[in-house]
């Protein structure tokens, strides 16, 4: 009996050891288009941070099937994502892709552009400049965060397009709305006939907003402007699709809370390390996906400036050396 | 993975027992290396711990102690500017406080002799790669009490040039001090900001240029604290301290090029 138990223990030990060696063999994003209106589709990403399991698929991308072509909004985080996206679109329609809009410079929105090699990939001028400056750094960072699903991904710099507030593409009238609060240059696209608004990262829903290049005051103004846009369906950059103002209001109230709680902490003399844990007991945002990660990132983005402003109100006498 | 040794106690089965144990030890390297190796072992399991102890703590007596608290983010969003707060107030009297990162190319970040301040400091630093981040506090018992956390980082913070020295007017700002005082129940909290590039000397063709020492004293000339800064302290060092008395603070600082910085921090306006 004792001997059997000994062998059994040994066997279990070896088995557990082997289990540790087995890696997940599935290297695909399993993209499934979600129809949000006639001829309008969204690929909804997870509400997580970048990790090896999600391969960077934390983002919402989409496409509109027009009369004689397809309009794509953002290309996802990697070459593989872009290629899978294109194959998924081909299962819905055989019409050619006539335009790919990149809404802003963040890596999860444009690193899939290799999947759309023969289509015009375009963005606002500031976005193009930003991708030229930071694209390679983003790509390197994504390899570190996401691993092998990034294989072969290269930066494709979009072309600048001739901006007009309303354009006619593939028989669809699109309103192109320029914002700048989230990343310095943020494009939102309203498809007039369906009423679908691709808000990109100006709006997050049930997922904590990110602030690496944000101007929070401007972003809050952008959201005010967005409230007036006559949409039927809103596709946020991250989080589930909605048909009302909830996502806009949630993003605005998070940003207001972030701005006010960090300003107050700075004025009270708290150090940056001390605000890594927010002290709001009634904070309604703890339940948002990835709240802790994004809140702490936002402290790094926003607090140094607030802290400097607070210190500058103190009194110092200094003799020049 | 669990290594269950239950069932190996039967006598007369010696050889088989030895063989099985040998296999288990081979299969379970984590378990075998986690056994205590004489004295208190490093909870962060760092390959550099022995070297850190020899280099920074002169192999003096050490105990890992949760009362020395290091607050830092789990992951460094900006490798040039990682916030940290070290709090050793639970130890009572602390003679000396050292903050270091085992895997930084220059591990020693900051040292402090807290005279009339609490053994507590917040500041920002540059990180080169994921590393243990630790504080060692020399207590009245003559023992170094060590606490720490693991910090993840994309890194590269120590081998980049300072941001400010890329702008035209950095030398006019050099040595400018801003500060603010917040009275509290035990005395006052003071925040200091000194404009300085704090170049590490590890970026191409940019020599090390950093503030080495800050002396803080009260109006009677008593030392409040002596703070030694090293290359990894972030550009334009911003320090948050808690004094056990109120009143004006005199600051005297020196960088490694001999620039002398002096300022008087006024109490509430």
Please characterize this protein's 3D structure.
The complex is a heterodimer of chains A (321) and B (269). By secondary structure, chain A is α/β, with parallel strands linked by helices. Chain A has a domain at 27-245: Ribonuclease Z/Hydroxyacylglutathione hydrolase-like (Metallo-beta-lactamase, Chain A). Helices cover 35% and strands 20% of the residues of chain A. Chain A has seven helices and 13 strands. In chain A, the strands form two sheets. A seven-stranded mixed beta sheet of chain A has the order 1-2-3-4-5-6-7. In chain A, strands 8-9-10-11-12 form a five-stranded mixed beta sheet. In chain A, helix 5 runs antiparallel to helix 6 and helix 6 (246-267) packs across helix 7 (291-311). The longest helix of chain A has 22 residues, at 125-146. Chain A is globular and about 70 Å long. Chain A starts with a helix and ends with a strand. The relative contact order of chain A is 0.11. Chain B has a single domain (49-265), classed as Immunoglobulin-like (Sandwich), CATH 2.60.40.2470. The N and C termini of chain B lie far apart (61 Å). In chain B, a hairpin with a 2-residue loop joins strand 10 (177-184) and strand 11 (187-194). Chain B is built from four helices and 16 strands. Chain B is mainly beta. Classes of the chains: A alpha/beta (321), B mainly beta (269). Chains A and B meet through helix 1, helix 7 and strand 13 of A and helix 1, strand 3, strand 4, strand 7 and strand 10 of B. Strand 13 of chain A pairs antiparallel with strand 16 (260-265) of chain B, so a sheet runs across the interface.
